[in-house]
Amino acid sequence: MKCSIGESFQSGSIAPFGNLELSPCCTLLNYGQGLFEGLKAYRKEDGKVQLFRPEQNALRMQTGAERLCMPSPSVEQFLHAVKQTVIANKRWVPPPGRGSMYIRPLLMGMGPALGLGPSPNYMFLVFASPVGDYYDKGGKSMNLLVEDKHRRASPGGTGSIKTVANYSPVLNAQARAKAQGFSDVLFLDAATGKYIEEVSACNIFIVKDKVISTPETAGTILPGITRKSIIQLALMLGYKVEERLIPVEELLDADEVFCTGTAVVVTPVSSVTHQGRRVEYKQSQGETPVNKKLCKTLTGIQMGRIDDKMGWMVQVD
Ligand code: PMP
Questions:
Q1: What predicted TM-score, i.e. pTM, was given to this entire model?
Q2: Which of 159, 224, 257, 315 is the most exposed place for a label (fewest CB within 10 A)?
Q3: How many angstroms separate the alpha carbon of residue 214 from the centre of ligand 1?
């Protein structure tokens, strides 16, 4: 879909995957006027395909667009484009238990602006690809390195939106961590460097004495849709959940640590390393970890095995 500022988005069409034509002066390339979203379509046992909370992605894109001075598609337009993309690629949605279809909506400034300013026109597009598990190596758990050198987001910045510009500053830290054998990096807050914030592309939770805590989003952390859903499910399952500042020391002292996100769903963290100190999280014998219970409930809803009481799932056909 295309639009100019002050105009609404014109309806687009399904096209084969291919390259785009961009002006070298476009604001996406020059000033980072770009946003993306990520969501998944799941195939149920009966063959039908459903989306997980897609309207939440549409709303998050609207918030981000406002921050970056961009127009955004309406929730209806967003949902229509996502559904049409999934329907056109339905045969590629993997069968239950074999993965899902990852959907990537993009909103970008296409028009030229040589001096700093917003683009005169925009494009919204959606592409999709079948995916398996994000962390398919190492027994589906993550070993994290707490990043000391770089910060991901600063107060008043863009950490809480899904702008393309948030991701390249993460790559250097991630590459250093991966070179040392870690699965990913955990970022600390920019203001003090004392509190945990989030991993490159997922939110973090800790569990201590059965109480679940996660950093409050407070403008520097992406308000993950999985994060929000896990908080709701945990409360329904009777857990106490706290959204607050979490010092690194508490992370190192936790009983359990796990990450949430569209890609990772709910993935346990097996170890965290901070300033050379490595902490391994061991589960007590015979007890099902909190993250496993939450993961089972969430994936049960997504795959249509558990009744969707919250009305989260949206059928595409
Ligand atoms: N934080 C960051 C930086 C992310 O890129 C993502 C992935 N979108 C998340 C958290 C998790 O968000 P969600 O649950 O909506 O996928």
A1: 0.96
A2: 315
A3: 14
Domain annotation for the chain: domains and CATH numbers? 2-8+19-131 (3.30.470.10), 138-302 (3.20.10.10)
Residues 6+ apart with CB under 8 A from 247: 194, 195, 196
Counting atoms of ligand 1 from 1, which one is nearest the CA of 60?
15
Q: Is the pLDDT of residue 135 over 60?
A: no
Helix spans in the chain (H): 27-31, 54-67, 75-88, 168-179, 225-236, 248-252, 290-302
Q: Which residue has the tokens 């006027």?
A: 33
* Ligand 1 pocket member 58 (CB < 6 A): no
The Cα 273–Cα 269 span in angstroms is 11
Nearest Cα neighbor of 122 from 131, 113, 130 is 113
Token pair listed for 4? 């100019």
State both tokens at 267. Answer: 């993935």
